[in-house]
């Protein structure tokens, strides 16, 4: 199954177009490698998705083309959620 379709069906990301954009920006890794939206995933793969200042790591448990809202959470297991420290932009001192 394509990565972007899995993210939409599992409801990790609400829309497939948004899942594609996030993948194209390099914010998703599958088993430690940066993944494209078209990357094939299978049960047992580990996904790391960066949402702003948070990284969510999940394991793919099962693949289904359609799923009811109540059963969507069974498609993956959240392994960890970590917050990134906010990075302050460095100011450039202009010499006069």
Automatic annotation (TrEMBL):
Belongs to the RqcP family. InterPro entries: RqcP, S4_RNA-bd, S4_RNA-bd_sf. It holds the Pfam family S4. CDD domains: S4. Key component of the ribosome quality control system (RQC), a ribosome-associated complex that mediates the extraction of incompletely synthesized nascent chains from stalled ribosomes and their subsequent degradation. RqcH recruits Ala-charged tRNA, and with RqcP directs the elongation of stalled nascent chains on 50S ribosomal subunits, leading to non-templated C-terminal alanine extensions (Ala tail). The Ala tail promotes nascent chain degradation. RqcP is associated with the translocation-like movement of the peptidyl-tRNA from the A-site into the P-site. Keywords: Protein biosynthesis, RNA-binding, rRNA-binding, tRNA-binding. Associates with stalled 50S ribosomal subunits. Binds to RqcH, 23S rRNA and the P-site tRNA. Does not require RqcH for association with 50S subunits. It comes from the Bacteria. Residues 1-61 form the RNA-binding S4 domain. Transmembrane segments: none annotated. This is RQC P-site tRNA stabilizing factor. It comes from Lysinibacillus irui.
């Amino acid at each position: 199954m394509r990565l972007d379709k899995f993210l939409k069906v599992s409801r990790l990301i609400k829309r497939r177009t948004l899942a594609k954009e996030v993948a194209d920006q390099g914010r998703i890794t599958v088993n430690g490698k940066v993944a494209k939206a078209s990357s094939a995933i299978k049960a047992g793969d580990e996904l790391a998705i960066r949402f702003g200042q948070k990284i969510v790591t999940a394991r793919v448990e099962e693949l289904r083309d359609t799923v009811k809202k109540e059963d969507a959470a069974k498609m993956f297991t959240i392994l960890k959620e970590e917050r990134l420290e906010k990075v302050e932009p460095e100011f450039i001192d202009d010499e006069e």
